[in-house]
Design a protein that fits this description.
The chain has seven helices and twelve strands. It has helices at residues 38-52, 70-79, 97-111, 130-138, 191-197, 218-221, 248-259; strands at 3-8, 11-13, 34-36, 57-64, 83-87, 115-119, 142-146, 148-152, 155-161, 166-172, 175-179, 202-205. The strands form three sheets. Strands 7-11-6-1-4-5-12 form a seven-stranded parallel sheet, sandwiched between helices. It has a three-stranded antiparallel sheet with strand order 8-9-10, with no helix packed on it. A two-stranded antiparallel sheet has the order 2-3. α2 (70-79) links the parallel β4 (57-64) and β5 (83-87). The chain is globular, with a radius of gyration of 22 Å. The N and C termini lie far apart (64 Å). The structure holds flavin-adenine dinucleotide. It comes from Streptomyces aidingensis.
């Protein structure tokens, strides 16, 4: 039977562009340029490698995001994924992490899966909580933050590198994994891949298709609220410490650190 791999990919505001919040302190995802979260390219890469070493496999990429989030899906399709699912609904604006995990879990269940692959974190929210929440919602094991991952005999196996040790982890499928930016360079889409992606199927689902009440998602259903957001102050000019070779500079630096109670 075909190994069904689902990859969660997020469409995020381009970090090199002008990013902003809307009036109700929600990230502006409509009027800014966006792209496939760079950390999710690693997830797509690992899914494609697992699929490549299986007898028969299908890779589906799933996103929850605004209309332009199809750009992220097309990029993943051009890398080699087979098909895509886009969850889009006006009532999703303001959805927080628990809401996102509910929406993605329903979309993944509807698609059918043996293995869900996520990135280690998104490059905008950067909470890194979605994979664990997703596993809980789906009622399957989670093996997170892997820098190496493989699938054989109905088991997913991976290595998680910590500061002092590396763990070998294993779970029976179906399962959720997340992979780090150490898992291997993501491939660039080839010209052939880009052309082929234009013809690959992208299914669009809304909250009704997923049988989710609008009150369970969006700002209304959010467990968290952003009360204030302030712009980071501009960097101030640094202080230059000069030393004429008499060790005065070192004394000044020590005094600077002592004044601020660093030493
Ligand atoms: C239109 C829209 C409006 C939103 N408004 C808000 C808001 O007002 N307040 C708020 O707190 N959150 C909001 N969110 C949700 C938020 O952006 C995150 O998706 C969610 O909170 C998860 O947190 P994170 O990005 O830190 O994910 P992490 O936990 O850091 O992500 C880990 C991994 O989960 C997967 N993943 C995460 N998000 C998605 C996604 N959307 N689609 C597919 N895969 C995903 C990726 O594989 C990612 O690498 C909104 C999302 C959308 C699409």
């Amino acid at each position: 039977m075909s190994l069904r791999i689902v990859v969660c990919v997020k469409y995020v505001p381009d970090a090199t562009g002008d990013r902003r919040f809307t009036e109700d302190l929600v990230t502006d995802r409509e009027s800014v340029d966006g792209l496939l979260s760079e950390l999710d390219e690693y997830a797509v890469e690992q899914a494609l490698q697992i699929a490549g070493s299986a007898d028969d496999a299908e890779v589906t990429v799933v996103t929850m995001g605004p209309a332009d989030a199809t750009d992220a899906l097309r990029k993943a399709l051009s890398m080699g994924a087979d098909k895509a699912v886009h969850v889009e609904d006006d009532d999703l604006v303001g959805t927080d992490a628990p809401g996102t995990s509910l929406v993605l879990a329903r979309a993944i269940e509807k698609t059918g899966y043996d293995l869900v692959v996520c990135g280690m974190a998104s490059t905008d929210g950067t909470m890194g909580v979605l994979p664990a929440m997703l596993a809980e919602r789906l009622g399957v094991p989670q093996v997170t933050l892997l820098s190496e991952v493989s699938v054989a005999d109905g088991l997913v196996t991976g290595r998680r590198d910590g500061d002092t040790a590396s763990e070998q982890l294993q779970a029976a499928l179906p399962a959720v994994v997340s992979v780090t930016d150490q898992s291997g360079e993501a491939r660039y889409p080839s010209f052939k891949g880009i052309m082929a992606a234009k013809k690959k199927p992208v299914e669009t689902l809304d909250l009704e298709d997923l049988e989710i009440d609008a009150a369970e998602a969006g700002l209304e259903g959010a467990w968290t609220t952003v009360e204030e957001a302030v712009e980071r102050p501009a960097r101030t000019k640094g202080e230059v410490v000069e030393d004429e070779g008499e060790g005065e500079g070192a004394k000044q630096l020590a005094g600077f650190l002592a004044d601020r109670k660093f030493i």
